[in-house]
Structures are given as structure tokens and as C-alpha cells.
Design a protein that fits this description.
It is a single chain. This protein is mainly alpha-helical. The protein has a single domain (72-120, 140-355), classed as Orthogonal Bundle (MetI-like fold), CATH 1.10.3720. The protein has 13 helices and no strands. Helix 7 (183-198) packs across helix 9 (217-244) and helix 8 crosses helix 9. It is elongated.
Amino acid sequence: MPTNPFSSFGDRKKRRIDDLAATAGDAERQPADDAKVGAAATGSAQHAGNGGTQGPTVEDAGAIAGGAGQSLLASAWERLRRDKVFLVGAGITLVFVLLALFAPLIAPHDPTKGLLLNQVRQMTNPVPGAQPGFPLGGDTVGRDLLSRLIVGSRQTLIVGVFATLGGLAGGLTLGTLAGALGGWVDSFVMRAVDVMLSIPSLLLAISIAALAPEPSQITLIIAIAVVQVPIFARLLRGSLLAQRSSDHVLAARALGVRPVSIIFRHMLPNALGPVIVQATLVLATSIIDAAALSFLGLGNPDDRQPEWGAMLGTAQQYLGDYPHLAVFPALCIIVVALGFTLMGESLREALDPKSRR
């Protein structure tokens, strides 16, 4: 019976593949066998050296010579606590927050009472200077300037924090829709964000605050929050797009996990890191914007509630003769904004694997 040449060729190819597979298996098993023999020899030596009383334990198996692993947050904290820039920024921020929280207890006088009003009524002394009990003097209606600066920190903190939280909430909503859904939703949201980013932030905030029937602290917070929304939205959208093609998201889809669960349990938690770091930087911007709007008269019109930006606006007509009325509020704004900026930049570097020192 004649042999089939194609069948003979197929048998030879099959045998060749089997031989290669057997050779590869032997090559893979050989190092493992050598390692087992070496481990056994080492264990026997240790056992003999210890008088036959102790050998390798279960805890020794799989141990890494470099030590235990470290999470991203733990490694970031190790760098931050040695970072002088972060410590300076965190110190300034902590002092500002404590000062704002306990302002009524720390302020030496009531910031709404004109305790030096009698001196103001004298035409030769319209702005009382420094004197015992009043280290910075008084303002144009005899109120203690130091007390107003201390209590004004509370209003600044309220506006900065709530404006940042409002912008963060709006940015999370738009960024999640754009980055998780994609398609026409992504295009629509991003075009709206581009329009908002094309307008200067301060001009947009002034326009929004001017639409209110009368200025107030709430309109100030809303105006600043709307300005911050596109910043968070674009940042979160970029993070989510990077998460969409990651291995753990692809594995969840292959296992049949619902899209909503993938977005909120796998993608969003891993994309929030850069957004939280950006929030610390936005706090500094919110404080500066709040001071600018209050300076223009778009903030809280109640002069009994001191606010650093409003104090700057009141002091501009006395800037030539009494510059300290504007210098002290301006220094407070600059120092606090600097503290949040230093802390935010240090956090960004510590959490970014590309910039680890």
C-alpha cells in the first residue's frame, strides 16, 4: 500500500513539535530541580549547624530580600515628611485653619464694635494707629484691625472650601460622564468645558456674580465654584480614559461585571488621586478669586462680617496716607495662598511615580 507523502510529512512535523516541547520542559524543570537540591542542601547545612534542632520555616518561603512591600500612600508620606517645602505649606495651612476655627476666641476685641471711634472723630486722626491693647491700630470707624483680620480668616476659609467643594462636585459629574461613557456624551461635555475654559476665570466669575439681584456670600461661592468646574472635569476625564484600557477594567468586563459597577468600583476610585491633589491647588485660587470679587464689591455687603478682600476694597481710598490698612489683608491672602500652593505641589510630586525622588 503506497504511503501518503502528506501524511508522512504531518507525522514528522508532529514528532518534531513533541520533541521540542519535551526539550523545553526538561530545560524548565532542570533549574527548578537544581534550586530544590540547593535549597535542600542549604537546609541540611543549617540543620547541621544548629545542632539539628531548627530548619527552614514556612515563613521563610517566598520572602523577598528587599523587605516588605510599601503602598503608594505610605511611600508618598515617607517622602513628604522629609520635604521641607511640604512641611512649610502644611504648617501655614494648619495655622490658617486653626485660626479660622477658633477666631472668636483668639480675637482680642469684638471686630464689629468701634472701640476707637472717639479717636476717629478727631479730624487729625481719622485712622487710629498702634497703641496699647491695639497692636495694629484701628480702621476708619475705630474697629480693631487685628481682630478683624483674625475673624476675616473664617469668611475666607468658608468661601474657599465651599467653592472648591462645589467645583469638585460639578467637575466629578461632568468628568465621569465624559470619561466613562465616551462617544457623543464625551464630545458634548468637552465642548462645553472648552467654552468655559476659553473665558478668563476672573471675568467669568464676575459675570456670574453680577447676575445675582444683590451680592452675597452665597453668590460669591457659586461664581467661584462654576469657574473651577471645567478644571476638575478635564482632569478627571483624562484619568478615566487612562483607566478604561487598564488590565483590571478589561478583566472586569471579561467577567461580565456591570458597566455601572466598573465605573464606580474600578475606574473612579483609581482616577481620583490627581483630582484630590488639584483640589489643594484650587483652594489657593479660590481664596484669591474670592478676595478679588469682594474687592470689587461683589461679595458679602455686610461690613460687620470682616473679609480680607472687602477690607482691601475699603482701604484703597486711604492707601496713600495709611497703607497698612491694605498691606495687612494683602499679606494674609498671599501667605495663605502660598501655603496651599506649596502643599499641593508637594503632594503632586509625591504621588506622581514619574517625579519620585
